């Protein structure tokens, strides 16, 4: 690797580190040496990361996210290349990583410096700043992957609305904004009445209370929606499928409401409804590059700013509790140097 002289590299720095003991994983701020970083192609000076539901599960030890110990957490990062063993990247390049094993098998973004595999890195489109890249993060990539999957299925704007569950969260907020800007009438579903104006400003034409969708569903209901994007799962996803119009589809990308799916085959065999699975973390970086190009085209930076807020990484533990309790609106950008 070549290292430009303009980058003074510290010997040690603090990172959010998870280590396993007899009682499970323990997470804390801990000193990490530059030499401790994994032997990967590209050294990145991380400027921002983000807080996703998955991050909160890892930070609190409530989810089986981490697959090896020790592990620096954070499934997203945005920063600039310091040194590179790959001809694809040069010092100073603005780059982003979402998923790609970060915080699971690869050290993640809750660190001011990180070494990353070159094949995981994506050049940041000039439409977005480093902070805005993390305002998008895994949530925005997931929302756009969902939109693109629905498009491939053949869906296009019609008078019948598209439904978005968990609309107040990161994925949901991004999905509402993207679908609305692409011309779809959007029905946003949330359990927080206080978010009505927020979701309307993002482009939702209807705001529905989530309790109406969390009930036991008939095997086949009336055709309320052309399709949708669901980050909740469980009874809510079953309800969506039962009420999706013929030849519609639902992109499923989360399980905040449960992993079970109490649904019959009727929506699939009587209406040709599609259930489209979305996994942003397993989407190769090459495919994610196309996603970021679509985001740069279809998601104005001003919308990202309206959805996001910047918080210091030092608040990660209390913020993780907040997001798991459903108290976070939109996206949290983490300043890893604060």
Word description of this protein:
The chain has 338 residues and is α/β, with parallel strands linked by helices. The protein has 2 domains: 12-124 and 300-335, Medium-chain alcohol dehydrogenases, catalytic domain (Quinone Oxidoreductase, Chain A, domain 1); 138-277, NAD(P)-binding Rossmann-like Domain (Rossmann fold), CATH 3.40.50.720. Helices cover 28% and strands 28% of the residues. It has helices at residues 53-60, 130-153, 170-181, 196-202, 234-242, 266-270, 285-298, 301-307, 316-324, and strands at residues 12-21, 24-33, 42-51, 71-72, 76-84, 94-98, 113-116, 122-123, 162-164, 186-190, 206-209, 225-230, 244-252, 274-277, 308-312, 331-335. Strands 3, 5, 6, 7, 8, 15 and 16 form a 7-stranded mixed β-sheet that branches. Strand 15, helix 9 (316-324) and strand 16 (331-335) form a beta-alpha-beta unit.
């Amino acid at each position: 690797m070549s290292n430009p002289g303009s980058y003074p590299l510290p010997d040690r720095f603090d990172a959010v580190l998870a280590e396993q003991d007899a009682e499970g994983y323990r997470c804390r701020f801990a000193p990490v040496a530059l030499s401790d970083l994994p032997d990967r192609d590209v050294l990145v000076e991380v400027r921002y990361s983000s807080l996703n539901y998955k991050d909160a599960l890892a930070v609190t030890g409530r989810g089986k996210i981490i697959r090896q110990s020790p592990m620096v957490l954070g499934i997203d990062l945005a920063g600039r290349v310091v040194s590179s063993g790959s001809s694809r990247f040069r010092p100073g390049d603005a780059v982003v990583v979402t998923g790609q094993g970060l915080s699971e098998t690869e050290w993640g973004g809750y660190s001011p410096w990180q070494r990353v595999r070159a094949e995981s890195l994506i050049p940041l489109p000039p439409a977005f700043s480093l902070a805005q890249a993390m305002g998008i993060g895994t949530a925005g990539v997931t929302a756009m992957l969902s939109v693109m999957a629905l498009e491939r299925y053949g869906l296009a704007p019609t008078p019948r609305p598209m439904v978005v569950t968990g609309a107040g969260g990161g994925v949901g907020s991004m999905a509402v904004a993207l679908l609305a800007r692409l011309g779809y009438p959007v029905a946003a579903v949330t359990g927080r009445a206080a978010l009505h104006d927020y979701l309307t400003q993002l482009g939702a034409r209807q705001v529905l209370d989530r309790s109406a969708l969390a009930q036991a569903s008939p095997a086949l209901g009336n055709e309320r929606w052309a399709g949708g994007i669901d980050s909740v799962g469980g009874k809510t996803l079953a309800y969506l499928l039962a009420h999706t119009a013929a030849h519609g589809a639902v992109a499923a990308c989360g399980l905040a409401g449960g992993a079970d799916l109490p649904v019959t085959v009727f929506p699939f065999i009587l209406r040709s409804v599609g259930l489209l699975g979305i996994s942003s973390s397993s989407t190769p970086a090459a495919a994610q590059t196309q996603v970021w190009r679509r985001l740069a085209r279809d998601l104005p930076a001003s919308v990202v700013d309206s959805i996001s807020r910047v918080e210091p990484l030092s608040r990660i533990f209390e913020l993780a509790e907040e997001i798991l309790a459903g108290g976070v609106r939109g996206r949290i950008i983490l300043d890893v140097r604060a």
